[in-house]
Amino acid sequence: MIRVLVVEDDPVAAEAHRTYVERVAGFTVAAVVHSGAEALRFFERDTADLVLLDFYLPDTHGLAVCRALRAAGNLVDVIAVTSARDLAVVKAAVSVGIVQYLIKPFTFASLRDKLDRYAKFRESFGETGEVGQSEVDRAFAALRSPVATALPKGMSGQTLDAVVSALRDEPDGLSAGAAASATGVSRVTARRYLEYLADNGLARREPRYGQVGRPEVWYRAVK
C-alpha cells in the first residue's frame, strides 16, 4: 500500500481528500494534518510515501514545507493540491521536486488519474538499484497524462473556470440565470456547467422556494 499524508487546512476539503485517496486501490491515508508544522512533526515520528500538499497553509507556504523536508534529507514524493496558478509558483514546485500538480477545484476522477499515474511511476523502477534509459523514460512517461482529463463533449475548460469563479464570488450561491448573466453564456449552458460541478462534488444544489410554482435550484460552491 502507498501511504499518503494529506496536508490541508480546510477541514471539509481535508476530509474530502482523505475519502478520495481511500477510494483508490493501493493507497491508504497515513494521517491528515492541517498545517505545515504538523506535516513536519509527522515526519519526525512516522513515514509516508506521498504527500498531498495544499500550498496556502495557515502557518506557512507549501513550498516552504517541501524545502524543509528536503533540507532534512527527506525525499518523500509530493503532489501539490492547490488553487495556486501563478507561473512562478508552478516553476518553484518543479524545482523542489513536486511530481504532480493538481489545481483546485478538481473532481475525484482528476485526483484518481494523478494517483494511478504516480503508482505506475513507482512500479516502473522495480526493486533494482540501477536503471537504464528505458526504465527512466518509462517512469517519467507514467507521470505525464497524454491529454488533460477530458470534460464531457461540448464543454470547455475556459467556460468551466468562468462558472467556478462566478460561484466563488457569490457565497450565497447562484441560480442558472444568475450564472449566465455573470459569465455571458446562455442559461441552458450555465445550468449544464453548474450541474457538472454539483455531480462532481464541487458545488451543492439548494432548492429555493418562491411565491408560486416549483422551487428554483441554486448552486453554492463547495470549498
Description:
This protein has about 220 residues and is of the alpha/beta class. The protein is built from 9 helices and 8 strands. It has helices spanning about 10-20, 35-45, 60-70, 85-95, 110-125, 135-145, 155-170, 175-185, 185-200; strands at about 1-5, 25-35, 50-55, 75-80, 100-105, 175, 205-210, 215-220. The strands form 2 sheets. Strands 2-1-3-4-5 form a 5-stranded parallel beta sheet. A 3-stranded antiparallel beta sheet has the order 6-8-7. The longest helix has 18 residues, at about 110-125. It is elongated and about 70 Å long. It starts with a strand and ends with a strand.
Distance between the termini: 29 Å
Number of helices: 9
Note poorly predicted spans.
Answer: none
Please report the total strand number as a whole number: 8
Overall mean pLDDT: 86
Oligomer: single chain
What composes the largest sheet? 5 strands, parallel
Strand content: 15-25%
Helix and strand run? EHEHEHEHEHHHEHHEE
Rounded Rg? 20 Å
Order of neighbouring strands in the sheet with most strands = 2-1-3-4-5
Shape call = elongated
Helix content range: 40-55%
Secondary structural class: alpha/beta
